[in-house]
Design brief:
By secondary structure, the chain is mainly β. The protein contains no helices and 8 strands. It starts with a strand and ends with a strand.
Length: about 80
């Protein structure tokens, strides 16, 4: 497993985990902000509404992606 911090913002925590070339997991904690995500072929569009509103795009590797949000934590799993 390898770990990479992918957040461009100091106040948010986002990391990418790689598991033996089989699966990649992206996890981002947005706290109490309202978060929505739309997964397209090779990109996830994340919209955050809170004290500051913004939109960001995360490039995804090839594979089938599933995204879910639980208590302000966004998880995107990509299987190869």
């Amino acid at each position: 497993m390898s770990l990479e911090r992918i957040s461009q913002r100091e106040e948010s925590i986002a990391r990418r985990y790689d598991y033996d070339d089989e699966e990649q997991v992206i996890v981002a904690d947005f706290g109490t902000a309202e978060v929505s995500v739309d997964v397209l072929d090779d990109v996830a569009i994340v919209v955050v509404e809170g004290e500051e509103n913004y939109q960001t795009e995360l490039e995804l590797p090839e594979g089938e992606a599933q995204a879910f949000i639980n208590n302000g934590v966004l998880t995107i799993e990509v299987g190869r």
